[in-house]
Amino acid sequence: MTRPRVVIVGGGFAGLYLARGLEDQPVDVTLLDRQNHHLFQPMLYQVATAALAPNDIASPIRSILSRQKNAEVIMGEAVSIRPADQKLRLADGSVIDYDYLVIAVGTRHSYFGHNDWEPLAPGLKNLEDAEEIRRRVLLSFERAERERDPAKRHAHLTFVVVGGGPTGVEVAGALAEIRRYALRRDFRRIDPREATVMLLEGGLRILPSYPKELSERAKRELRRLGVEVREETMVSDIRPGSVAAGGWTIPTQTVVWAAGNMAGPLTRSLGVPLDPAGRVIVEPDCTVPGHPEVFVLGDVAAFPDHRYGHLPGICPVAIQMGQYAARAIAGDLERRPRRPFTYWDKGQLAVIGRGHAVADIWRLQFGGFAAWLVWIFVHIFFLIGFRNRVMVMLEWAWSYFTYQRGARLITWPWNAGARRTGITGNTGEHRSADAGPGRAS
What we know:
Blueprint: E1 5-9, H1 13-21, E2 28-33, E3 37-39, H2 44-48, E4 58-60, H3 61-64, E5 71-75, E6 78-82, E7 87-90, E8 95-97, E9 100-103, E10 107-109, H4 127-146, H5 150-156, E11 158-162, H6 166-182, E12 196-200, H7 212-224, E13 227-230, E14 235-239, E15 242-245, E16 248-251, E17 254-257, E18 261-263, E19 280-281, E20 287-288, E21 291-296, E22 301-302, E23 304-305, E24 309-310, H8 315-333, E25 348-353, E26 356-361, E27 364-368, H9 369-382, H10 386-402, H11 418-421
Parallel strand pairs: 1-2, 1-9, 2-5, 9-21, 11-12, 11-17, 12-13, 19-22
Antiparallel strand pairs: 3-4, 6-7, 7-8, 10-18, 14-15, 15-16, 20-21, 23-24, 25-26, 26-27
């Protein structure tokens, strides 16, 4: 008899832990992802702020599952689902049949109807986003070094982070440390310590999912680092060179978006109820209504919760959902009834800066150096791969004792505006905007 085929769409935490959980089961596992690597998203902001290199927080999916005999990996993009026929269609036109389908594709950043803001304010969801933000941040200092107009120089040295959740807080704190420590001796015409870092939050307080005391503590620590924290400040417009928020116009050339998430178009092809962010409103066993063979896990699942309304899109939720789905599929094969999914809330952590974090773990609420050590331990523990754990520990140790960041590289296309500015490459050669290829003017 043919073995059941489990197709997993998405190689994030939920998909990977599910695949591993089925290693000893009589099923064939197909993991589909449009990237060839698993990404440790909680530390993505450290790539964006030049603390870590991209390969420190990513591992090839094929390598992770290479020893699992019942698993195969396909690099491709799913575009639609036909639940009635149990078929998944890919962007290249091919179709995959399944007995069980698991949707764990994660989410993208939401601009709340202002998609024209995305080119001006990139979000932070994948390595490409992180490298683009790193490029823009470092280029701002380089351009400020050459700018003679004080107003334009100030705009280059103003960094605006939109969204006061954990990602926004971590990015703002890291940018403040780059300004204060890593770059302070690198320039001759500017003092990087004079750069402005602003964190804009539309709600009543930053870190709204944390207890109020920890939110206030995080705000105090950010302000100690020199971050301007503005709460109840809604962004109304983003244009080249400025951000309009709370009745103010802020001149800036670098904006980072960390204000919202939404699911991609794949969930809409299921034909089931979705929440306003496009997430699937799942059953107690994390399945689609009317289709017990289709699981929706992780960030793209809207699972009711008494504390949060819906479970938050964080890696512990995704991991536990992936492990649960593996047990549910194994139970189906043994004809055991499914039990509802229950989430064990282990707490939440957010790092603010060097040697300081806030922690809400069970009934313990604390901050400072102790919370920072807990944050380090937890993130090292969940990193995939021995090599990544060692490299991240070494990079953090080096950064802590030297106040430096080891990935301050500006990569292509840093000179995307060369035709307009007359600056090309890294050879020092100047061309006029009208000079043809290879003809220096």
